[in-house]
Amino acid sequence: MSNKEIYKKTLTFSLRRFIFNTCCLLLVGALSVFGFLLVDKMFDKGLIGLAIGILFGIIIVAVVAHFFSYIYKAGHIVMMMKAVTEGTLPDDVYHEGKRLVKERFTTVALYYAATRVIKAIFNEIGSLITRGAEAIGGDTGNAIGNAISIGINVVVGFLCDCCLGWVFYRKDKGAVKATLEGGVIFFKNGKALLRNLGRIFGMGIASLLMIGGAFTGVFFLIFNNFGDAFTSLRDEIMEAGVRNSWDIPAFFNNPTNLALIAAAIVGLILWAIIHGTFIRPFILVGVIRNYMEAGIKSNVLAEDYSTLEKKSKKFAKYMEKEN
To answer: Measured at the alpha carbon of residue 165, what is the angle toward residues 162 and 171, in degrees to the nearest 5?
Structure first.
């Protein structure tokens, strides 16, 4: 099956995730507005109400997402893995993916803890890069190092998804062992797998500019019709600044600028939802294909594990537990 065929065949997971994420976003937005209006009317402290509403909404979404969005992500990845390794998919990919996730629920749940090993390795490498760049170039080097670290974090997200596919593929191994092996596979085939970087970052930046920019413009036009609300928000910010002796830039003293900030935030959130549910899976199909092909061909040796043990204390700790 081609990447395009796999993407289209598994699109049902993206659609379900989109509906779920949109509902979560609407819930956070509704609670934010409700908190602002309620507290502003009762105590003339709308900014505090806004913060409370956002926080409460995020907590609810985090709890719900932990238990329900799991099936969409894991099911999507396992179907991609089956497609690239077996060359075929069942007619009802959603329920088959759901069945496989339930079948391996305990193992896959442990996988989420095991991915901390992978993240720890990359975080240590990222810290070394940042410190090295700062030592060489000062503040400029630090900025470059931080940019590289951000890029590394993006790669980590894809690697963790690939490792989840590997966990499903290696049914003979537990989640931690399969994840450790998955990390070794990536580092052992790093040069071959890094060819995905152009696709990952190129499509990510393009979608951010096009989708995020478009939504920012649309919501800026919408928010401009709610001048009174942003004027009230401006007054709250200025009063908080005076009360707490904060040096608030003049930019925030303009309700139109606050509307632009709010529009940019909404645009960024919507971009993250659309990119994560529709565009990222298309990129992920190709990444998983390259990863699985490299993993199946790889002959992972004891010395390969030793190399990563030297790079990460957490990796060594998990290896010790497994042995």
So the answer is: 140
